[in-house]
C-alpha cells in the first residue's frame, strides 16, 4: 500500500492548530494545593462536630473522689532492756576529735596527812621491895627520901642514848607531892607527851593512873617542868610522842 500524501492548497485558509487532548491522569488527580485545603476543611469540621456533641449532647465526665487517707497506727510496747553497745574501734574522725579535745589529766594524788608519830614506851623494871624494911621512921622526923625514877637507873648503861638523856631530864624535875607523902601514897603513873625537835613539850596527858590524884597530877607536870628536853636526833621525825612511867615509892634507896 502506498502512503497517502495530503497536499495543502496554498489558496485555502490554514488549518487550526491541533489542541492537545487532556491526559486522563491529570483529570483524575486534583492539584496539590486544593488537596491540602480540602483535608484541612475536613479536620476542622470533625473537631467542630465533636465539640458540639460534647456541649449539647449532655456528656458530663464522672469525677471520682480520691480514697480517704489511712489513719496513723502507733504501736505502744513496753521498754525492752537496753542492748549492750559493742565497743567499736575509734575511726579517724573520732581520733581527730579526741585530739582536738584531749582528756583532762587526772588530779594529782592527795598526799595523806602525816600520821601521828608512834609513841616510844619505856618499861623500866620495878624496884624489888626491901627484905627487911626496918622500923618505920616516926612522923615527926624529916620526910623520907623520895624514890627516884627507876627509868634513869635502868638506862644508866645507855646514858649516851637520846632516850636515856630524856629520862635523866625527867628525873631531875620530878616532885613527890608532900600531901601524898604524909598519906603514904605510892604508885606508878604513865604519862604520854609530845615534843618537837627542839625539845619543847607540845602537850602532856595522863595515860594510866597511879590510883592517886596527887601522884597523877605531879606525873603530868613533870615533862612540862623538865622542858626543854634533849633535842630529837636528826634520824628521828620532827615530832615524837613518848610514854614514860613516873614512879613514886617511899623508902626506896
TrEMBL record:
GO CC terms, sorted: plasma membrane protein complex
Main location per the UniProt record: membrane
Keyword terms of this UniProt record: Cell inner membrane, Cell membrane, Membrane, Protein transport, Transmembrane, Transmembrane helix, Transport
Source taxon at top rank: Bacteria
Compartments, as annotated in UniProt: Cell inner membrane
GO molecular function: energy transducer activity
Domain TonB C-terminal: 161-253
Database matches in PROSITE patterns: TONB_CTD
Record Pfam families: TonB_C
SUPFAM superfamilies: TolA/TonB C-terminal domain (SSF74653)
Residue ranges of the region described as Disordered: 1-31, 80-140
TM region(s), chain numbering: 37-59
Biased composition (Pro residues): 81-92, 102-136
BP-aspect Gene Ontology terms: protein transport; transmembrane transport
Membrane-related topology note: Single-pass membrane protein
Family classification: Belongs to the TonB family.
Protein name listed in UniProt: Energy transducer TonB
Organismal lineage: Bacteria, Pseudomonadati, Pseudomonadota, Alphaproteobacteria, Caulobacterales
Amino acid at each position: 500500500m502506498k502512503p497517502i500524501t495530503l497536499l495543502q492548497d496554498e489558496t485555502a485558509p490554514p488549518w487550526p492548530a491541533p489542541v492537545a487532548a487532556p491526559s486522563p491522569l491529570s483529570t483524575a488527580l486534583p492539584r496539590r494545593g486544593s488537596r491540602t485545603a480540602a483535608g484541612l476543611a475536613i479536620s476542622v469540621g470533625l473537631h467542630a462536630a465533636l465539640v458540639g456533641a460534647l456541649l449539647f449532647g449532655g456528656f458530663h465526665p464522672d469525677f471520682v473522689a480520691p480514697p480517704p487517707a489511712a489513719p496513723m497506727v502507733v504501736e505502744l510496747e513496753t521498754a525492752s532492756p537496753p542492748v549492750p553497745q559493742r565497743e567499736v574501734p575509734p575511726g579517724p574522725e573520732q581520733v581527730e576529735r579526741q585530739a582536738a579535745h584531749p582528756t583532762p589529766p587526772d588530779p594529782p594524788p592527795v598526799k595523806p596527812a602525816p600520821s601521828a608519830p608512834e609513841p616510844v614506851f619505856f618499861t623500866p623494871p620495878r624496884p624489888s621491895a626491901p627484905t627487911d624494911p626496918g622500923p618505920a621512921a616516926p612522923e615527926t622526923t624529916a620526910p623520907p627520901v623520895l624514890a627516884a625514877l627507876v627509868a634513869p637507873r635502868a638506862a644508866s648503861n645507855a646514858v649516851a642514848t637520846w632516850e636515856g638523856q630524856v629520862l635523866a631530864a625527867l628525873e631531875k624535875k620530878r616532885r613527890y607531892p608532900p600531901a601524898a607523902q604524909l598519906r603514904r601514897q605510892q604508885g606508878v603513873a604513865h604519862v604520854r607527851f609530845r615534843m618537837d625537835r627542839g625539845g619543847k613539850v607540845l602537850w602532856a596527858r595522863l595515860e594510866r593512873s597511879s590510883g592517886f590524884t596527887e601522884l597523877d597530877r605531879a606525873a603530868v607536870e613533870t615533862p612540862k617542868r623538865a622542858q626543854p628536853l634533849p633535842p630529837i636526833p636528826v634520824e628521828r621525825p620532827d615530832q615524837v610522842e613518848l610514854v614514860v612511867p613516873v614512879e613514886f615509892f617511899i623508902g626506896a634507896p
